[in-house]
Amino acid sequence: MNPDRDAPYLRLDPVILAANIDRMARSAKARGLALWPHAKTHKSLEVARRQLDAGAAGLTVATVGEAEVFAALGVPGIFIAYPLWVTQERARRLRAVAERTQLRIGVESLPAAEQLAQFKIPADVMIEVDSGHHRSGLTPAAAGELAAQAGNLGLKVAGVFTFPGHSYAPGQGNGAAGDEAAALTEALAAAKAAGAAADAVSGGSSPSAAHAQPVLTDIRPGVYVFNDAQQLELGACAAEDIALSVAATVVSKSGGRVILDSGTKTLGADRPAWTTGYGRLLEYPDARIVAASEHHATVELPGPLPALGTRVLVAPNHACNAVNLHNYYVLSSTGPGTPDPAATMWAVDARGMN
Amino acid sequence: MNPDRDAPYLRLDPVILAANIDRMARSAKARGLALWPHAKTHKSLEVARRQLDAGAAGLTVATVGEAEVFAALGVPGIFIAYPLWVTQERARRLRAVAERTQLRIGVESLPAAEQLAQFKIPADVMIEVDSGHHRSGLTPAAAGELAAQAGNLGLKVAGVFTFPGHSYAPGQGNGAAGDEAAALTEALAAAKAAGAAADAVSGGSSPSAAHAQPVLTDIRPGVYVFNDAQQLELGACAAEDIALSVAATVVSKSGGRVILDSGTKTLGADRPAWTTGYGRLLEYPDARIVAASEHHATVELPGPLPALGTRVLVAPNHACNAVNLHNYYVLSSTGPGTPDPAATMWAVDARGMN
User: Fold this and answer.
1) Which residues pair with B106 in a beta bridge?
2) Do A308 and B112 touch (CB under 8 A)?
3) Which CATH class is domain B14-225?
4) How many CB atoms lie within 10 A of CB A320?
5) DSSP reduced 3-state for A158
6) Which residue of A has its CA nearest to B273?
7) What is the DSSP string of A250-271?
8) Is the complex ipTM more than 0.95?
């Protein structure tokens, strides 16, 4: 871990973690959905193993590096849910991954499909469609043409997928799940009409997962495993469901404000307009982080200010980006003190493989 | 480096780096200012060595971990320009650092000064004042009382310092430098009146460094060594002065937009309201990064779109946070291709020590 044990560290509560894993696993099973948790959130073999033990069908990842790390686990399937551009060097790596697991790769353009075929990647393809987030992905209607082209190239089209990222705004989880279902229904029909045997219909995001509609066969939530200030402020979790935090120290105080030593280099700089600040203080629900720089979080809070030197737990806005800033999780279910040198630590195994 | 050589990587142009180091060194020398570059920007022994070779008086750092890394260089002085909360564990580390270099530590409260005295840290203290950024720091008038208290505790008050962070807005560099000078002048007089021998007057930030006023003895700019999209948009550098970028790949395109694989996990998520987006594309000055998620940068640009698979260089908004996301710099003065396996690489030695 950080050579300075009093510096902000990444704290993971294993009791809450286990409850979050169990809750999503049961929810997916009850609805007949295959759960492919997105491992970009945690980048951790220990966490992934627990998700698989709870019944996950496979793991979702964003990068080739992440696929390599998690293939070592002996996972049944890995889905690189990303419009990957495959080069010769990447092809060699992907073939090695495919020897250890069943590989699925996202595709949303003919040139990318041609690269997959040219380099003989032994992977099924999943066609990405845009369901309203307007990032990558084809229109649903265009999925048929790409399915036909991919088939002509000798690729197996396993299904269609989308990321309903517009679920990340207050009150949008249900509506985004509706858009997701509509886009995937149209894309699936188009792919089948083009002759693809496509039967995987993959959606999901943590705020929309609870609203996933029956057309879906798979969901890919990521953040649910930890939760974070964004999920809390979206109403997608309760404060007691947040397993991940940064243990910070009060270093300055004056007139209703304190400064914590956890800034954007330990919490991340994510700050969507609909959030109340740069994260939330777990023990101070009324506190707000009104500004942040690399090593300073400026906190406004009512009532008596905590003393200089007090350690507090800060839930970052975005767990995925916060985790990627740290080398280790320190496991603890007690308060926010200096970590016990004997505390269990888990590596962020895929840190930096972005 | 990242096991996937085609993933976004951190690229450093050594020719521009050398020019940036030389320009600031000459500017400081011409004005009789001691240059204490902030090493939190680069976290690199190789870069620090070049700054010292060019005449830097010492290095500024933000954390104990960074101080430990850079003390190994044999640097004449290290200034932890931060209101550090010193524990017994940290005291042991700081004493080890002080055996290798002359140590200065920021202080802005009596309890923090008492900790420094109690743990017998062999360091001079620098009193932090607020010059308008309204983060940490005392009012200038209050510097006298703390200087007296520190003296009574047996601490040597070496001087006063501020960070004029309100220079980070368009057109504010000169005004912030004026506020900096006014606050430091008042604080210095107050400290001297309280009997402190204080003679170091330390300010600086990259946008205000060129405007530093005669009361200052030391400046602590950090970003100037690389420059970034923020400095460009503030007018603090020209595009050709940007030494640091992330080499990214076009993975999706449609109707005036492309998606790059460099998202917030490789560029950082910094996005002040006055910036035009999440960074700037060096080869496409009219392009704007209108949205970013972890692995996607959504770019709008006029004219013909680059082909899928094209590599482009993206200057991050904030060099300090971007560097901290990577393990290595890949040195290159040519185009943005896949890095040569024989390319020189420099470690981000203090990565994660936040």
Assistant:
1) B83, B126
2) yes
3) alpha beta
4) 24
5) strand
6) A273
7) EEEEETTEEEES--HHHH----
8) yes
Residues B231, B238 contacting (CB under 8 angstroms):
no
pLDDT of residue B313: 97
Residue B273 phi/psi, 5° resolution?
Answer: -60, -30
Contact with chain A for residue B8, Cβ under 8 A: yes
Amino acid A92: pLDDT: 96
Find the radius of gyration of the CA atoms of chain B. Answer: 21
Q: Cα separation of A70 and A75, whole Å?
A: 7
CB contact under 8 A, B2 and A324: no
Cβ contact, residue pair B112, A251, below 8 Å: yes
For A252, name the nearest residue in chain B, comparing CA atoms only.
Answer: B136
- CB distance B265–A326 less than 8 Å? no
Neighbours of A302 (CB within 10 A): 10
Residues of A in contact with B108 (CB under 8 A): 252
Residue type, A36: W
Closest Cα in chain A, distance from residue B30 (Å) = 31
Which tokens sit at B291? 């949205």
Which helix (H) or strand (E) segment is B53 a member of? Answer: helix B45-53
Domain limits, chain A? 15-224, 230-347
C-alpha to C-alpha distances, B41 to A234, B244, B277, nearest whole angstrom: 34, 11, 21
Q: Do A7 and B83 touch (CB under 8 A)?
A: no
Does B109 reach chain A within 8 Å, measured CB to CB? yes
Give the amino acid at A338: T
Gap between the terminal Cα atoms of chain A: 21
CA B23 to centroid of chain Cα atoms: 17
Do A346 and A44 form a contact (C-beta atoms < 8 A)? yes
The tens-digit pLDDT sequence of chain A (354 residues) is: 567 889 999 999 999 999 999 999 999 999 999 999 999 999 999 999 999 999 999 999 999 999 999 999 999 999 999 999 999 999 999 999 999 999 999 999 999 999 999 999 999 999 999 999 999 999 999 999 999 999 999 999 999 999 999 999 999 999 999 999 999 999 999 999 999 998 999 998 999 999 999 999 999 999 999 999 999 999 999 999 999 999 999 999 988 899 999 999 999 999 999 999 999 999 999 999 999 999 999 999 998 999 999 999 999 999 999 999 999 999 999 877 777 778 899 999 999 999
Fold held by B230-347? Lyase, Ornithine Decarboxylase; Chain A, domain 1 (2.40.37)
Search chain B and give the residue with CA nearest A93: B4
Domain made up of A15-224: CATH architecture: Alpha-Beta Barrel (3.20)
Q: Which two tokens stand for residue B56?
A: 């830097």
